[in-house]
Amino acid sequence: MNTFTIFLILIVLVAFLLIVVVMVQNPKGGGLSSSFGGGGTQQLGGVKKTTDFLDKSTWALATLLLALILASNFAIPGAGGATESKVINGENTETSIPVTTPDTNTDDIATPSDSIN
């Protein structure tokens, strides 16, 4: 298992956890935070502490997701701008693409004095 696969698995896991945490929140006062201590009672830390926990966990997971995405850029195979090289029978041969330039022969260029027949 290479490094990029590990980053990919971690990114998917963190993204799933972030989706779950966001879906648990309800901006209208419902959701998980109203289940724990609704109506002014202070059960299991109360509504305020549950909302704070969900808010902090959302920011932490979002930051972790961004950091993992940026860090995975270094683990992508072939990313880095280096030339690709292959080893064949112990010889190192670099792969290169031949660059051709167009022929600038002026004899083939039509001029206004040429007649079209």
Secondary structure elements and pairings:
Layout: H1 3-24, H2 32-35, H3 46-72, E1 85-88, E2 91-94
Antiparallel strand pairs: 1-2
Task: Describe this entry's structure for a reader.
- Strands 1-2 form a two-stranded antiparallel ribbon.
- The mean pLDDT is 73.
- Helix 1 (3-24) packs antiparallel against helix 3 (46-72).
- Strand 1 and strand 2 form a beta hairpin.
- The protein is built from three helices and two strands.
- It is mostly helical.
- It is 45% helix and 7% strand.
- The chain is elongated, with a radius of gyration of 31 Å.
From the structure above, extract its key features.
mainly alpha, 3 helices, elongated
| Helix content range | 40-55%
> Biggest β-sheet, characterized?
2 strands, antiparallel
Radius of gyration: 31 Å
Give the SSE order as H and E letters: HHHEE
Q: Summarize model confidence as the mean pLDDT.
A: 73
Strand order of the largest sheet: 1-2
State which percent range the strand residues make up: 5-15%
The structure class reads mainly alpha
Poorly predicted runs are none
Number of strands: 2
Number of helices: 3
